[in-house]
Amino acid sequence: MDLVLLGAPGAGKGTQGALLAEKLGVPKIATGDMLRDAVRQGTELGRKAKQVMDAGQLVSDDIVLGLVRERLSSDAARGAIFDGYPRNVAQARSLEGLLGETGRRIDAVVYIDVDDDAIVRRMSGRRTDPDTGVVYHVEHNPPPAEVADRVVQREDDREETVRHRLEVYRQNTAPLVDHYRQAGVPVHTVDGGQPIDAVQGEILGLLGK
Ligand code: AMP
Predict the structure, then answer these.
(1) Which residue's alpha carbon is at the smallest distance from atom 14 of ligand 1?
(2) Which positions of the chain have pLDDT values less than 70?
(3) Where is 112: in which H helix or E strand?
(4) Helices (H), ranges, 101-144
(5) Most exposed residue of 30, 113, 122, 203, measured as fewest CB within 10 angstroms of its CB?
(6) Is residue 41 within 8 Å of residue 47, measured between CB atoms?
(7) Dihedral pair phi/psi, residue 167, rounded to 5°
(8) Distance 25 CA to ligand 1 centre (A)
(9) How far, in Å, is the centroid of ligand 1 from the Cα of 182?
């Protein structure tokens, strides 16, 4: 199963992707998580990516392609859930090429739909545990006491950066919905404004799982 999760930043791709990965037994490939790891480890790639990420822009297609290529030949050799990748039509074409090398293709796309104001409210309350990468929300999914004093707000979750990321999303990533429809890939839309469990249930239902 190769599945692409589409949706604005903060729509819940990371949360739903993690639940789906567990349920379907395939790894999640989240380029944003991989880039943040590289930043934390202080690698050369991480140093290059940090400024771009903090400003809410997209890092270069080559960088993310390299990250994804490595995963497709290792832990994700038999399927993956793509979260935050592809981010534009060029990346979608590269991914099609990469998967095609081993006879794979995108089986389905899930588009998680959430309106902009709800996204801005969500992002400002979002907190991440830097040790585990688990994402919480101060109101809707508060971090448990044992991790509460180490959770952090992402640099790019500040309101003006979120608004910029939404713009980048609209220009670059939103066109992928049509791209996949035209390519004949089933695109399932879910209302991402519902509680986490309800969204998950709807996605599994749409995928027939
Ligand atoms: P995310 O966690 O998916 O919201 O990604 C955080 C940031 O990482 C984005 O705002 C971009 O700067 C960068 N990033 C993540 N995935 C990609 C991608 N596929 N292409 C370009 N930049 C990306």
Answers:
(1) 32
(2) none
(3) strand 108-113
(4) 116-124
(5) 113
(6) no
(7) -65, -45
(8) 24
(9) 24
